[in-house]
Specification:
Structural class: alpha+beta
Low-confidence stretches: none
Strand content: 15-25%
Number of helices: 3
Strand order of the largest sheet: 1-4-3-5-6
Helix content: 25-40%
Number of strands: 7
Shape: globular
Radius of gyration: 13 Å
Order of helices and strands: EEHEEHEEHE
Mean pLDDT: 96
Largest sheet: 5 strands, antiparallel
Oligomer: single chain
Length: 115
């Protein structure tokens, strides 16, 4: 499956189709919090990160998440990825620890994935 750069809205149905092509119920995504875009469809967050970097994103702005398109509650976004380990930015775990960054990611995802 190819990595897709999402900069205009797609539907949850489309996201579900992408999930079924790779992992079944989950889509790995990397969100650029400055550009307001995300990459999806890769096997690993690092693959999506590389694609965004090649298109002009800056490392400090990229955060890895997992999307569960079949879930309807807040749990449909999981803030967990190895690329989030950034002690130099104060993020010392796989999770996105900063609530402001989490909120930004949530808003970007909401604008790019519609029901």
């Amino acid at each position: 499956m190819d990595i897709h750069i999402i900069n205009t809205a797609i539907t949850r149905t489309q996201l579900t189709e992408i999930a079924s092509e790779r992992f079944g119920d989950i889509v790995k995504a990397v969100v650029d919090i400055k550009r307001g875009v995300m990459a999806i469809g890769g096997e690993m967050h690092a693959d999506e990160e590389i694609e965004l970097l090649a298109q002009g994103s800056v490392q400090d702005d990229l955060w890895g998440i997992n999307l569960y398109p079949d879930k309807t509650d807040e749990g449909w976004i999981e803030f967990d990825s190895m690329i989030n380990l950034r002690p130099s930015q104060g993020n010392r775990s796989r999770s996105v620890e900063d609530p402001t960054i989490r909120q930004t990611i949530t808003h970007i995802v909401a604008s790019l994935i519609t029901d």
